[in-house]
Amino acid sequence: MTTGIEPRGSAGGGLIRLGLIDNDRMLLATTEGWFAANAPGMRIEHKASTVAEYLALEPADDLVLLDLRLDDSTRFVDNISRLVQYGTAVLLLSAHTSRDVKLDAIRAGAVDFHPKGDLVGLVQAVADIAANRYVLGQELAFAISRDRGPGSPDLSERQTEAAMLRGRGLQVKEIAKRMNVTPKTVEGYLERVKAKYQDADRPYNTAAQLRDRLREDGAEL
């Protein structure tokens, strides 16, 4: 998973430059205006209705907010891949989608999925990505936990969430705060994760080794 964004634009001052790709022209204008009025430090620099149209602008944005379904018959996984190859992080937006679609988006290179229309939450998500503190939502963490290949342990949703946070270097107390549980509960999750990897003949002893195991199982950290 992308773990942060480095400012690419020339605006300076810590400004987070955003691209927005969506079929709905009215939504493009509305979202741009909302960010301008409510999200200091962020600015939608480029808007387009297709990825091709967006890339033709030769943008230097830090993060692209990409609608799942565009009217040009392109596949969302291909759109994500094109944007990632161009060099920008991608946050996928949609009102309704399945865990499988979300998982496909992550595997294509998206930072994560965010509900379309939740502008308040979207601003927070962008801020978290920029500050390198963004983690997978519980639902997507659970989807990854169920997408097991040969030798992958069967982790619960909460075990996966704790493991992802530990793999990113957070300490037990920090994980407990994020998950709204006690440190003892987190320790229990992590002990079970370690035991399950041991049972799968893929042991680890450090947070860095846990991160490697999670990456081997398809997690983007």
From TrEMBL:
Gene3D superfamilies: 3.40.50.2300, Winged helix-like DNA-binding domain superfamily/Winged helix DNA-binding domain (1.10.10.10). It comes from the Bacteria. SUPFAM superfamilies: C-terminal effector domain of the bipartite response regulators, CheY-like. Pfam families: GerE. This is DNA-binding NarL/FixJ family response regulator. The keyword DNA-binding applies. Residues 169-196 form the HTH luxR-type domain. GO terms for biological process: regulation of DNA-templated transcription. It comes from Actinokineospora auranticolor.
